[in-house]
């Protein structure tokens, strides 16, 4: 079993890279952003709630996000492992994840961050916003709000996972293939430890 968290600022390529490695390792890819967006487009109660926060570039409250993630993980058990993309994003989410995994006799093996400068992130997200229809990609103000949320609520997770000796960071600028090779190198080297 291999459980990996892909970590990084908004637009750092977490979703893009997670989709590229899930098949290689036979992992279940859970993107909290994708689950929220699916619920939003289906007009579910969860989707309507999440939309109020996502459209402003704010994080969805922990209570809602943790309950959703727990039900996603349980729905895929048993499996070879998970690649979590966009979760956890707060210390409370990370602590809740640890508790949930202990109860399931599982653990996080690796947290890999994609390191990308803000200038590149803003360009990537504005570019995606031209075609994605995503409200949170539509203006520099909303993107800056997402970066601010990252600094205030998500960045402290670096120390949380460094303390657990699970945190690795790679350069997230370059071609998709080059970044994928950096990611796979870390996973393979840790799997063979
Ligand atoms: P997410 O869906 O997680 O979205 P993201 O941070 O924008 O994207 P990601 O890093 O996955 O980048 P991507 O691969 O798409 O979150 C959206 C919102 O959902 C949050 O703001 C929040 O409101 C809510 N949410 C989600 N999880 C939550 C949680 N745990 N708690 C609370 N709220 C939560 O790539 C971005 C763009 O860059 C794409 O266009 C891609 O093609 C491009 N790109 C990727 N790699 C590239 C490269 N190497 N070079 C150039 N472009 C690249």
Largest sheet: 5 strands, parallel
Number of helices: 9
* CATH domain class: Alpha Beta
CATH homologous superfamily placement: P-loop containing nucleotide triphosphate hydrolases
- Secondary-structure-based class equals alpha/beta
C-alpha termini separation: 14 Å
* Strands ordered across the widest β-sheet: 2-3-1-4-5
How much of the polypeptide forms β-strand, as a percent range?
Answer: 5-15%
CATH architecture verdict: 3-Layer(aba) Sandwich
Task: Tell me briefly what this model is.
The chain contains nine helices and five strands, in the order βαβαααβαβαααβα. It has 193 residues and is of the alpha/beta class.
Which features does this protein show?
12% strand, binds BIS(adenosine)-5'-tetraphosphate, alpha/beta, Rossmann fold, 193 residues
Description:
- The chain has one domain (2-187): 3-Layer(aba) Sandwich (Rossmann fold).
- 59% of the residues lie in helices and 12% in strands.
- The chain has helices at 14-25, 32-42, 45-54, 62-76, 91-103, 118-132, 140-154, 157-163, 176-191, and strands at 4-8, 28-31, 82-85, 110-115, 167-171.
- Strands 2-3-1-4-5 form a five-stranded parallel β-sheet, with helices on both faces.
- Helix 1 (14-25) crosses helix 9 (176-191), helix 2 (32-42) packs across helix 3 and helix 6 packs across helix 7 (140-154).
- The longest helix has 16 residues, at 176-191.
- The protein is globular, with a radius of gyration of 16 Å.
- Bound molecules: BIS(adenosine)-5'-tetraphosphate.
- BIS(adenosine)-5'-tetraphosphate is lined by residues 8, 10-16, 31-33, 36, 53-54, 58-60, 65, 85-87, 89, 93, 124, 128, 136, 146, 174, 176, 179.
């Amino acid at each position: 079993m291999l459980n990996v968290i892909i970590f990084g600022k908004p637009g750092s390529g977490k979703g893009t890279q997670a989709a590229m490695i899930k098949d290689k390792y036979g992992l279940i890819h859970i993107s909290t952003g994708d689950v929220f967006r699916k619920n939003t487009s289906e007009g579910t109660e969860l989707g309507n709630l999440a939309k109020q926060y996502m459209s402003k570039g704010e994080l969805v409250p922990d209570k809602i996000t943790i309950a959703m993630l727990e039900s996603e993980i349980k729905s895929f058990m048993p499996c070879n492992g998970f690649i979590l993309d966009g979760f956890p994003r707060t210390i409370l989410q990370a602590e809740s994840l640890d508790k949930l995994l202990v109860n399931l006799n599982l653990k996080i093996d690796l947290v890999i961050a994609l390191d990308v400068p803000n200038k590149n992130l803003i360009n990537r997200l504005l570019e995606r916003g031209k075609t994605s229809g995503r409200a949170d990609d539509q203006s520099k103000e909303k993107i800056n709000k997402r970066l601010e949320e990252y600094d205030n609520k998500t960045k402290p997770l670096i120390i949380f996972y460094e303390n657990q000796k699970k945190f690795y960071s790679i350069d997230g600028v370059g071609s998709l293939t080059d970044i994928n090779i950096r990611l796979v190198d870390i996973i393979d080297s840790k799997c063979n430890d």
